[in-house]
Amino acid sequence: MILCRRQRGFSLLEVLVAFAILSVSLGVLLQVFATGLRNVGLSDDYSQATLYAQSILAAMGRETPLSEGVRSGPVNDRLSWRSTVSAYVEGLPDPEKSRVRAYRVSVEVYWPGLVQNRSVTLETLRLAAVEPPQGTPQ
Predict the structure, then answer these.
(1) pLDDT tens digits for 42-89?
(2) Element containing residue 108 per DSSP (H, E)
């Protein structure tokens, strides 16, 4: 007794549905990878900007004098910086008596983004000695 089995393959509709599912899945995976790469690049930009801002902030009052005003300049071909130094007097004693003056120092490192400019801002308070008036005994 010979049984004839009919060989059956996939129908055209089944193949089309499988390709549709595959293409949607690959599209989603590519989008996830692209978003991950974009976020890694953005994270690297923020890390670099933070390191430069810390470096500039550390130099304020040591390598450059603490004087009220705004300074700015380029860091490299992509990043730029801006610092703002202003007197800080909230709750502090008279600087002439304490012979110390407080300054609020703010450093912003910024760079152009795809949609909007991006930036990192760091702030601190710095103390500087007040020079006594001329002719006053110390």
Answers:
(1) 899 899 999 999 999 999 888 888 889 999 999 999 899 999 999 887
(2) strand 100-111
